[in-house]
Amino acid sequence: MAIKDIYEGVLSFQVEKVKELTQAELDAGTDIQTILNDGLIGAMDEVGQKFSEGILFVPEMLMAAQAMKGGLAILKPHLSAEMSHSKGTVVIGTVKGDLHDIGKNLVAMMMEGAGLTVVDLGVDVEAEKFVEAAKANKADVVALSALLTTTMPSMETTIKAVKEAGLSVKNIIGGAPVTQAFADRIGADGQSDDAPGAVDLVRRLLGK
C-alpha cells in the first residue's frame, strides 16, 4: 500500500512525507516506473480532475505539485534516459514584455507531474529564445503564456518565428486574456484556460 500512501501524500500536500515514502520505496526495490506512474503521476492526474470539478483551486494545485516535485527529485537521479520514458518535451515561457509567472509555473509543474520533460525559460522571453530552446531540446511543444493583453502580440511573433525556423513542433498558448479565437487567428495549435487543460491539450496533440 506504500504507493497508495505516496499518492495520498501528494493529494494532501505533504512534501516531506512524499519524499520519505518515495525514498523508502526505492530502498525496498520497488520499480521506479511504478512509483512514478502509479504514485506521483497518478496523483497529479487526480489533482487535475478535482480542479476541473471545482473541488481544488490554484493554491491547492500548487501545493500538490510541490509535493509531487519532492518525490520526483528523489527519483530523478535513478531515472536513466531510457527508463524515464518522457512522454514529450515542452519548452515553456512567458512571452516578451510580460513578467507574470504563477500560471506558467503551475502549468510547468503539472506537465512535469504528467511525465513530460519541461524546459522552463522563465518570463519576458524573446521569440528567438523560444526557437533556440526548441531546437536545442528537440521540443515537441512550445507553450506560451501571457497575462497582459498588451503582450499577446508577442505570442503571434513567437509562433511566426517558430514556424519560419521550420520546426515541427506544436504551439500552444494560455493566460487570462487568451481565447480560442485568438489562438486560431495567430496559428496556434491550441489554447487552454487552466493547467490541467494544458496537460490534456499536450497529450491530445502528441497522441498520448
pLDDT averaged residue by residue? 92
**How is the main sheet built?**
5 strands, parallel
- Compute the separation of the termini in Å: 28 Å
Biggest sheet: strand arrangement: 2-1-3-4-5
Number of strands: 5
How are helices and strands ordered from N to C?
Answer: HHHHHEHEHEHEHEH
Shape from CA axes?
Answer: globular
**Proportion of beta-strand residues:** 5-15%
Q: Determine the number of helices (DSSP H or I, runs of at least 4 residues).
A: 10
How much helicity do the residues have?
55-70%
Q: What structural class should be given to the helix and strand makeup?
A: alpha/beta
* Total individual domains: 2
The CATH homologous superfamily of the largest domain corresponds to Cobalamin-binding domain
**In CATH terms, what is the fold-level topology of the largest domain?**
Rossmann fold
CATH architectural label of the largest domain:
3-Layer(aba) Sandwich
Q: What are the segments in which pLDDT stays under 50 over at least 5 consecutive residues?
A: none
Topology:
Layout: H1 2-11, H2 15-27, H3 32-52, H4 58-75, H5 81-84, E1 89-94, H6 102-113, E2 117-120, H7 127-136, E3 141-145, H8 152-164, E4 170-174, H9 180-186, E5 190-192, H10 195-205
Parallel strand pairs: 1-2, 1-3, 3-4, 4-5
Can you describe what's shown?
This protein has ten helices and five strands, in the order H-H-H-H-H-E-H-E-H-E-H-E-H-E-H. Strands 2-1-3-4-5 form a five-stranded parallel beta sheet, sandwiched between helices. Helix 3 (32-52) runs antiparallel to helix 4. It is globular and about 50 Å long. Helix content is 57%, strand content 11%. The chain has two domains: 2-83, Methionine synthase domain (Methyltransferase, Methionine Synthase (B12-binding Domains), Chain A, domain 1, Orthogonal Bundle), CATH 1.10.1240.10; 86-205, Rossmann fold (3-Layer(aba) Sandwich), CATH 3.40.50. The mean pLDDT is 92.
